[in-house]
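Dear H.,

Thanks for agreeing to be a second pair of eyes. The structure we're designing against is below in token form, covering all 140 positions.
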């Protein structure tokens, strides 16, 4: 896996990443840090990646189990250390999974498998952060 990050050099702290798969991702800093607030912060991007990785696992596990999933959302809340490096110290992932007659036990199992076995992003972040999860199963 490869990625190139380039400073835009436009009088601020904006960066553009080009991923190995050819996609572009903008990042920026907060105004008090020299940024212009034009894009997510790098740490927000890292948190979003963890949520995307976990959601991917949950949807894949449920659909492979022949469950009819119609929506999956993950709300993430993170805490960071107060001193540099300000690593994540706690991350909570709340899954809202919608489907037709989804058994809550199947959703719980999918979230557990993602957390314990498959999600590379949360496994990495668990080196500094306490990872916790919760779920809501919705009909629809």
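And this is the sequence the design step returned. I haven't edited it by hand at all.
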């Amino acid at each position: 896996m490869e990625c190139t990050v380039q400073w835009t050099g436009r009088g601020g702290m904006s960066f553009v990443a080009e991923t190995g798969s050819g996609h572009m991702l903008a990042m920026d800093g907060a105004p008090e840090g020299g940024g212009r607030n034009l894009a997510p912060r790098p740490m927000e991007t890292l948190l979003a990646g963890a949520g995307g990785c976990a959601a991917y696992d949950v949807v894949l596990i449920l659909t492979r189990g022949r469950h009819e999933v119609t929506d999956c959302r993950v709300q993430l809340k993170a805490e960071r250390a107060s001193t540099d490096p300000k690593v994540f110290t706690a991350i909570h992932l709340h899954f809202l999974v919608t489907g037709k007659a989804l058994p809550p036990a199947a959703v719980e199992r999918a979230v557990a498998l993602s957390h314990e076995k498959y999600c590379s992003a949360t496994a990495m972040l668990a080196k500094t952060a306490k990872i916790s999860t919760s779920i809501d199963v919705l009909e629809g």
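Two observations from my side: The chain has three helices and six strands. The longest strand covers residues 68-80.

Warmly,
E.
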